[in-house]
Write a structure and sequence with these properties.
The chain is an alpha/beta fold. The chain has a six-stranded parallel β-sheet with strand order 2-1-3-4-5-10, with helices on both faces. Helix 6 crosses helix 10 and helix 10 crosses helix 12. The two termini are 40 Å apart. The C terminus is likely disordered.
């Protein structure tokens, strides 16, 4: 990851390597031949602890940082724990970004979420739509924390000449996802629900909301590939992504790149696809007493496409891959061997 040819010997810290995003980053880096990947579990390093984070950076001196560590969750988790979502994410970002500057990290990639954009932003959402309207209230604390992370990268770039880039992935799914129905996002929740319904012979599966909202989904390994691609760009391309000083340029150009597919699907169509992938034959019912969330979330990925990257995994193929990993990690109870699920 040098200015021209990627340096496979560079020390690369992946913060949050056990999560969906971080694990995909580690897989991609290893597959591409990077040999000095630095990781720490939460038990080994609590990134909400400033002194511990600063000591880690002083000792390890990473050259590059992928900041994928975050407190994440779906609508239910965001509604139940808003204080933790804003507090923990602000702390993690503050400590890692500041320590990266203190220790001369060459490049840092900050991973956010498409929920940073206004609830009723024009579709598809462009990077320039940031801060142009009210946020979705069900995840506003998390979104505000991520917006602060973008501004922190931007501010350090302006004041200290750092090279910190923020990327906003669309909704992700894949190996290592969280299948806890109380805290998971829509795809892992659906996979779990339909799998459990098939296993128990349930006649119907309930899906939150009306089924009409539209969402974009990206396989996690594709996301990781895009991140490593961006961090490996030559300087002349990478520096163009870092935006400008708005005070000097008069233009709102944050160091921000959307990562997605450029295509979306209704929740009802998604539910039907997951149902087919899992092999469930019952009915789907929609619980309209539950919130829909944002009506539509589709990212404009023109900026990412313009530097030469496009996604590779179709939604159906990605769901099939994710379900196979789910099956390998969630063995059926005794006596279920005849179901053909493993």
């Amino acid at each position: 990851m040098s200015s021209a040819v990627p340096d496979r010997q560079a020390r690369i810290y992946v913060a949050g390597h056990r999560g969906l995003v971080g694990a995909a980053l580690v897989r991609n880096l290893a597959e591409q031949g990077y040999v000095n990947i630095v990781t720490r579990t939460h038990r080994e390093l609590d990134l909400t602890d400033q002194s511990a984070t600063e000591a880690f950076f002083r000792d390890e001196k990473p050259d590059y940082v992928f900041l994928a560590a975050a407190k994440v969750g779906g609508i239910l988790a965001n509604s139940r724990y808003p204080a933790e979502f804003i507090r923990d994410n602000l702390a993690i970002q503050h400590h890692v970004i500041h320590a990266a500057w203190q220790n001369n990290v060459r490049r840092l990639l900050f991973l956010g979420s498409s929920c940073i954009y206004p609830r009723l932003a024009p579709q598809p959402m462009k990077e320039e739509h940031l801060l142009t309207g009210p946020l979705e209230p069900t995840n506003r604390p998390y979104a505000l924390a991520k917006i602060a992370g973008i501004e922190m990268c931007w501010s350090y770039n302006r004041q200290y000449g750092t090279r910190y880039l923020a990327v906003m992935p669309t909704n992700l799914y894949g190996p290592g996802d969280n299948y806890d129905l109380n805290n998971s996002h829509v795809i892992p929740a659906m996979i779990r629900k339909f799998h459990d319904a098939r296993r128990t012979g349930a006649k119907q599966v309930s899906v939150w909301g009306t089924g009409t909202p539209r969402r974009e989904f990206l396989y996690s390994d594709d996301m990781a590939d895009a991140c490593v691609f961006l961090m490996s760009l030559p300087d002349d391309q990478y520096l163009q992504l870092l935006g400008s000083d708005e005070v000097a340029s008069g233009r709102f150009e944050p160091p921000l790149v959307n990562i997605g597919t450029g295509d979306d699907i209704t929740i009802s169509a998604l539910a039907e696809t997951v149902k087919q992938v899992v092999g469930y034959t019952g009915d789907i019912v929609y619980d309209t007493t539950k919130p829909d969330g944002t009506p539509r979330k589709l990212l404009d990925v023109g900026r990412l496409n313009s530097v030469g990257w496009r996604h590779k995994t179709t939604l159906r193929d990605g769901l099939a891959l994710a379900y196979q990993v789910f099956l390998s990690e969630h063995q059926p109870d005794a006596g279920e061997g005849s179901t053909g699920l493993v």
